[in-house]
Amino acid sequence: MEVIDEIRLVGVNQENGIKFLLTLGLIAVLLILGRLFHWLFRLFFRGGRNERVRFWARQGVNLAVALVLGLGLLSIWFDDPTRLATALGLVTAGLVFALQRVITALAGYFVILRGDTFNVGDRITMGGVRGDVIALGFIKTTIMEMGQPSSHPNPDPAMWVRSRQYTGRIVTVTNDKVFDEPVYNYTRDFPYIWEEISVPVPYEADRERAEQILLDCAVRHTVRVGEMSAESLRHMKARYFFQSADLEPKVYYRITDNWLELTARFVVEEHGIRDIKDAMSRDILSAFDGAGIAIASATYAIVGLPPIRVRQEQ
């Protein structure tokens, strides 16, 4: 019995037991406060318009909880400054060696927030994934994936949706990708993009009439977007060194071996592009039929044949 009484677990004493209980209490209190604040934000910031406010509020609460937790643990376990310096040195060396990617991802999180790289709800391409940002955490970004337009014949990864519409897959990308690859943001400062519709017509067709049809369709379907994009463009020019850009719809010619390619260029909002292009395509086809203009297709003209000799055996 005397031998058993002398056995002590390493590091287990009354002081460490109290510190352990204080640590559990601190974690429990912070978890409860964090959940409470999140519930209050959901209660007071309802609706789609307040989604960004709710997002930034959650980020602020998460950062505050992490900061208080870190300071609390240091205060509980390292009351001696000399022990604290030694422990921090050992922990830092271990983290740098074993958690390089995690630390880089965490640094990427602060770069994303501080650099205004993107926000929740933005449409981006990051780490080879295209889609809308639906969540942003300390380590990873969650994206609702969208397809790739048919103008990209070999997308990576492979896509079965040939348009900028949701595929249904939710993809997570680590935040360290901001240091390795460019991040394409479709909606941050200028939430519009330039789109094109190309139509081939025969050379003998009434190309002036075909051009006017494309231009009328583009103006009719994008007039509201043109008015809004002009204001956004002024804000972007005030913030960046950006040259003037033509926001009015325009039709360009391109001469090919088989037909004349007419390309209508116009500005649209990033969301809903397929609906606009579908409506424009229908109007263009109807107007072409009414004007008697055909859509050109690849044809082969036989311009000559070698002489053919027929011999009849006797």
The largest sheet is:
5 strands, antiparallel
Unreliable stretches:
1-5
CATH architecture of the largest domain: 2-Layer Sandwich
Strand order of the largest sheet: 4-3-2-1-5
CATH topology of the largest domain: Alpha-Beta Plaits
Q: How many angstroms does the end-to-end distance come to? A: 127 Å
Over all CA atoms, what is the radius of gyration?
32 Å
Count of discrete alpha- or pi-helical segments spanning 4 or more residues: 8
Task: Estimate what percentage of residues fall within beta strands.
Answer: 15-25%
Derived structural class: alpha+beta
Describe the protein.
The relative contact order is 0.08. A five-stranded antiparallel beta sheet has the order 4-3-2-1-5. A three-stranded antiparallel beta sheet has the order 6-8-7. With 314 residues, it is an alpha+beta fold. The protein is elongated, with a radius of gyration of 32 Å. It has helices spanning 2-6, 14-44, 51-77, 81-98, 100-114, 177-180, 207-239, 273-291; strands at residues 123-126, 129-136, 140-146, 166-174, 184-185, 192-201, 250-255, 260-269. The chain is built from eight helices and eight strands. The termini are far apart. The chain has three domains: 12-92, no CATH class; 123-185, no CATH class; 192-291, Alpha-Beta Plaits (2-Layer Sandwich).
